[in-house]
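Reopening: serine-type D-Ala-D-Ala carboxypeptidase still failing for me.
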Amino acid sequence: MKRLLACLFAALSLTAQAQAPQPPELAARNYVLIDLTTHKTLAERDADTAQDPASLTKLMTAYVVFGALKDKKLTLEQTLPVSKRAWDERKGDPSLMFIDTTMTPKVDELLHGLIIQSGNDAAVVLAEGAAGSVENFVQLMNRQAQAWGLKNTEFKNVTGTSEPGHKSSARDIATVAAHIITDFPEYYAYYSQRDYTYNKIRQDNRNLLLRRDPTVDGMKTGYTEAAGYCLVASANREFPNGKRRLLSVVMGTTSREARANESQKLLNWGYTAYDAVKIFDAGKAIATVPVWKGEAKEAKLGAADAIYVAVPHGDATKLQTQVERTDPLVAPLNKGQRVGTLRVTTAAGTPVAEVPLVVQEAVPGSGLLGRAWDSLRLWIK
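Support: Ran it again with your exact input. Result attached.
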């Protein structure tokens, strides 16, 4: 799955724009809609424009904290001190969890405050606890962005406060959100919680879609004067062939209502304009091909995961598949080694998807005599 996610916005799905359904008109400066089931971008506008990401920044803040939990650098039950720097976040009336220097909240409580209440103070405490200082933590955020190839992103802080050089884009934000869903499913439930009470102060999750659409289970809101009202929304709807998750990023709207309405419009359009079609099940051999110089004479090729493709509604019966592979295929072959590509097209030849094909079971090299015999056969061939 991580290999596929790394190609999320590359050439996995190449539906011709001329035949693509036209997205609805949105009252938003920038947006992108991703089908996470098929790894296809369904719609976008100025998705690579770098701009103020506001509190959408906290998606990366949370991701780095989740990594610290995975690496045992933090635990959910661990308590952290509240520094004066975190306390000073109250100035200017920003988003707060409302913690002070007399408190020692648990990491779990701080994650609730970060994700549900969008607490700037919680972000600072978590950053200091995970990396020793906010500056060190910001370096980790930027290293992760660079590792994913996010060319339009640079972080200057952990909160999303407007600052020169602090920037991201709709597509980059979608990548961060998708990695949270894929890499840390055990923590994703934080994003679906509608409210949280800490220190007897109850605050609602600002993602209005959590209350309007039962299929929406995340993720994050943001607002600054420069960014406008922004929303990352993720929905997971049930269909006859299984669940299908869409992820939208809408930036630069004029109000909380607008960002919710435009996100809902985009999600609904994605589910109705496109169908997700399962081409092959996970673990199923897509092709059995001859192998030279191996202990086995054949190898089964398949995909790392079940293969879904997104096609305009009604076009599912018009798909064709073609296997392109390395020839000759010479052992030894490792399990998971890429040796080909499955190309999916319409009947007219329009590209729909390209999926890497990998060896499903390792094929060790044969003995000296067997390799010599196959070398002769290949020379004659």
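The first strand starts at residue 30 and ends at 35. If you still see a failure, please send the error message rather than a screenshot.
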